[in-house]
Design brief:
Nucleotidyltransferase, domain 5; 2 domains; five-stranded mixed beta sheet; 13 helices; binds zinc ion
């Protein structure tokens, strides 16, 4: 039997499963994405039809000869809920095609290669910890701020999964008993306050209350319902006062929430990804300055807040990273 290939010659196919598309890429052991592809994801149809999209994306990236395929493994980053240990997709709201679908097993059987599956936030957290902004830190807290807020906790190159695999749902930690109801059913989750759609919702309310002219409404063509997180971001860039007030308030919420995270796990670094996360980078110093008011930790202000390395490619890099999860390798 031939000796195993050194790490420098090993590749991973990172598969990013989304509500509308499957993206996949060939990723090196150093986290470089060599080439990528994307195909539509038919989420409304049968389970096998959706798996055929994964098959098409992966087949277009794997080398033709069977022998050279042995240097590959395949990792999929998917919306949850899912079981990261068994690799079964349980019942994600935006993937109605898959109910209790054994994705990791199907991947492993289809290509006879090692396979791993985890939720998108855990996977992206691990990619940042191994290859991105979290490199060199042992305790990493990652948050992606976009349509929702997903988080992942990585200790020493290993995703922290908790007792049943459901840990790391920081986006659904509440900071306000009287806050708005989140899509998950709880009140005052940080997602219900600081995700893109909820930043837009707060902006709409502020415009209605202030009755002052705002570029936000102008950018949305005068239609309040068309206001999105991106509209607020663009209005802010153009100097709009209402947009600034909404984003200042968002930073206050994030500081309060992060204070809880720091008091609980005291991470070595906090990394923000996603569209809203990129925007909030301008408030990192502001947030750090507010942390002492929301922590008992006397050194919370020292916590580095960094922007993510992988933005659009977080799912591909994340899928690849979970194949290298120190916990899974040990097991
Ligand atoms: Zn929630």
């Amino acid at each position: 039997m031939a000796a195993p290939a050194p790490d420098s010659e090993r590749y991973t196919i990172g598969v990013d499963i989304g509500g509308t598309k499957v993206a996949a890429g060939v990723v090196t052991a150093q986290g470089e994405i060599l080439r990528k592809t994307r195909v539509p994801m038919p989420t409304q149809g049968a389970a096998e039809e959706a798996f055929a999209a994964v098959r098409a994306a992966v087949d277009s990236l794997l080398p033709g000869e069977k022998g050279s395929r042995e240097r590959y493994s395949i990792g999929a980053s998917s919306p949850g809920p899912l079981d990261p240990r068994s690799g079964v997709i349980i019942n994600p709201p935006n993937l109605p095609c898959w109910r209790d679908f054994p994705l990791a097993q199907r991947i492993a059987e289809t290509w006879s290669l090692p396979a791993a599956v985890d939720n998108d936030a855990n996977a992206a957290a691990l990619a940042e910890a191994l290859w991105g902004a979290g490199r060199g830190y042992s305790a990493v807290f990652y948050a992606t701020l976009g349509t929702g807020i997903g988080t992942g906790i990585v200790f020493d190159g290993k995703v922290y999964h908790g007792r049943t695999g459901a840990a790391g749902e920081g986006g659904h930690c509440s900071i306000d008993f009287h806050g708005p109801r989140c899509a998950c059913g709880k009140l005052g989750c940080i997602e219900a306050l600081a995700s893109g759609p909820n930043v837009a919702r707060r902006a709409r309310r502020r415009i209605a209350e202030s009755r002052k002219a705002s570029k936000i409404l102008e950018l949305a063509g005068g239609n309040e319902d068309a206001v999105t997180g991106e509209t607020v971001a663009e209005a802010y860039r153009r100097g709009d006062a209402v947009a600034k007030a909404v984003l200042d308030e968002t930073a206050e919420y994030l500081a309060m929430w992060l204070g809880n995270v720091i008091d609980l796990i005291e991470p070595d670094v906090v990394i923000f990804g996603g569209g809203m996360g990129d925007l909030m980078a301008e408030w990192f110093d502001f947030i750090r300055g507010k942390l002492p008011a929301w922590t008992v930790n006397s050194r919370s202000r020292e916590t580095p807040l960094l922007g993510a390395r992988y933005s659009q490619d977080a799912g591909i890099a994340g899928g690849a990273a979970i194949c290298l999860d120190a916990g899974k390798r040990a097991g």
